[in-house]
Design a protein that fits this description.
Blueprint lengths: L15 H18 L3 E2 L5 E3 H8 L4 H6 L1 E4 L5 E4 L4 H10 L9 E10 L11 E10 L5 H16 L5 E7 L6 H13 L7 H9 L10 H6 L12 H16 L4 E3 L11 E9 L7 E7 L3 H4 L7 E7 H10 L10 E5 L2 H16 L4 E3 L6 H10 L4 E5 L1 H6 L1 E6 L5 E5 L3 H6 L5
Parallel strand pairs: 1-5, 7-8, 12-13, 12-14
Antiparallel strand pairs: 2-4, 3-4, 5-6, 6-11, 7-9, 9-10, 10-11, 14-15, 15-16
The structure holds adenosine-5'-triphosphate and magnesium ion.
Adenosine-5'-triphosphate binds next to strand 6, strand 10, strand 11 and helix 11.
């Protein structure tokens, strides 16, 4: 019998895993400097949580959720995104009683029943962050600058920061009406989904990826021309902070994002090297969601980074740090093998990566393995070395070699090689 992974999911293993771990550690370092602390929410939640927050007429809820009933008949969904679970926790655990702002980061798998293709999976990973309690646009700019630093630390360039404001319940009805007027005489040409969206949720038409729909919506009214005074001031202040912090942004008045909970600021970070699935991070403000979940009025903003898309960009760059052993201990014969094992275990106790050869491997094949692993040093132990109490060492990077006593190994390895 042959077992295979499900369609649209993927395994992550060495050497790629090292890129993943690097991205995770850079995110943790950068986000920590901005005051974000980790929050781990479950992967499963009540289905209502997502319907309520993401919106009934969004692609995620209409088509993409992994929903099932458990043995007790509860409706459960594998989280398609990370914001709703964090907000659920924030409200349920009364985290709003803690001093404001509260800032959280999360990472882990998300699940969406999408058509698998490059950059699009059914189980994919995100790193995200959510900041609660600040209404002023300064924090919107801080979030953008945090993302900028994150991408810079990873050496990713040629990224664009697209920003927009999609207003609030005060100004959005006017915009909605303008959109309906604009689309009314050309509705026939749109895809069936968009024709349905026209009645249910016309903003969603702006997010449709069907070529004809993209063409037909050319010249549609821009939300930025319909903002109320408060939303306009918020958006202008965000831009001035973004300039202050040298964030290379562009306003994209057509970016509405695929989730209904956003208010005011929305943004996407895109990279031109990624083809059509080019968004590497996306987010926005959701000033009403905490209240919607039964908490006190709490402005909030967050984003999520798509791990697969970041790691595929990093794989394009030449220098990848794949970890390698500090020392490979090649041994010849039973007693040398025992000595090598003891030395290796002692070095590992100190946190050094030590590898050993195994019985039946010739010296040549052990050295080949050391080479393939890119070990820094090779130690060779045979009967002569056991008798003299010394090991032969070789620095693989320049071929230099010598001898040291068994009891000098720790100090020897503590000194960085000269090469
Ligand atoms: P898209 O327009 O590409 O479908 P989205 O609006 O559905 O994106 P978000 O919900 O904003 O995406 O998720 C944030 C990020 O997570 C995206 O920018 C992307 O990098 C990543 N992402 C979303 N869906 C997938 C998926 N199915 N597979 C891999 N990564 C994904
Ligand atoms: Mg999507």
């Amino acid at each position: 019998m042959k077992y295979t992974a499900l369609k649209g999911v993927h395994d992550i293993f060495p050497p790629d895993i090292h890129i993943w771990q690097k991205v995770e550690s850079v995110a943790k370092d950068v986000f920590t400097a901005y005051g974000f602390q980790e929050l781990r929410a479950p992967v499963i939640e009540s289905t209502d949580i997502f319907i309520r927050s993401i919106g009934e007429t969004t692609d995620i809820v209409e088509k993409e959720m992994y929903t099932f009933t458990d043995k007790a008949g509860r409706h459960i969904t594998l989280r398609p995104e990370g914001t709703a679970p964090v907000v659920r926790c924030f409200v349920e655990q009364h985290l709003y009683n803690l001093p404001s702002p509260q800032k959280f980061l999360y990472s882990g798998p998300m699940f969406r029943y999408e058509r698998p293709q490059a950059g699009r999976f059914r189980q994919f990973y995100q790193i995200g962050a959510e900041a609660f309690g600040v209404a002023e646009p300064k924090i919107d700019a801080e979030i953008l600058s945090m993302l900028k630093l994150f991408f810079e630390r990873l050496g990713l360039k040629e990224l664009n920061f697209e920003i927009n404001s999609i207003g609030c319940p005060k100004c959005r009805p006017d915009y909605r009406k303008a959109l309906l007027d604009f689309f009314s005489d050309r509705l026939e040409g749109f895809c069936p989904d968009c024709r349905r969206r026209y009645d249910q949720n016309p903003l969603r038409i702006l997010d449709c990826k069907v070529a004809e729909c993209i063409k037909l919506r050319e010249g549609s009214p821009h939300v930025t021309n319909f903002l109320c005074t408060e939303c306009r001031e918020h958006f202008e202040a965000l831009q001035s902070y973004a300039e202050l912090l040298a964030i290379p942004y562009a306003i994209n008045p057509e970016m509405v994002r695929g989730l209904d909970y956003y208010t005011r600021t929305t943004f996407e970070v895109t990279c031109k090297h990624l083809g059509s699935q080019n968004a590497v991070a996306a987010g926005g403000r959701y000033d009403l969601l905490v209240e919607d979940f039964g908490g006190p009025p709490t402005p909030a903003i967050g984003f999520a980074i798509g791990m697969e898309r970041i790691t595929s960009l990093l794989k394009l760059s030449a220098d990848q740090d794949i970890p390698s052993p500090k020392v490979f201990i090649a041994a010849l014969g039973e007693s040398a093998g025992r000595e090598g094992l003891v030395i290796a275990v002692r070095l590992r106790l100190k946190g050094l990566w030590a590898e050993i050869g195994y019985a039946g491997n010739s010296l040549k094949s052990q050295l080949r393995r050391a080479d393939r692993l890119s070990a820094q040093y090779v130690f060779i132990i045979g009967d002569d070395e056991i008798r003299s109490g010394k090991v032969k060492w070789k620095l693989l990077s320049d071929g230099s070699q010598g001898e040291i006593g068994f009891n000098e190994i720790d100090t020897f390895l503590a000194v960085p090689p000269k090469a």
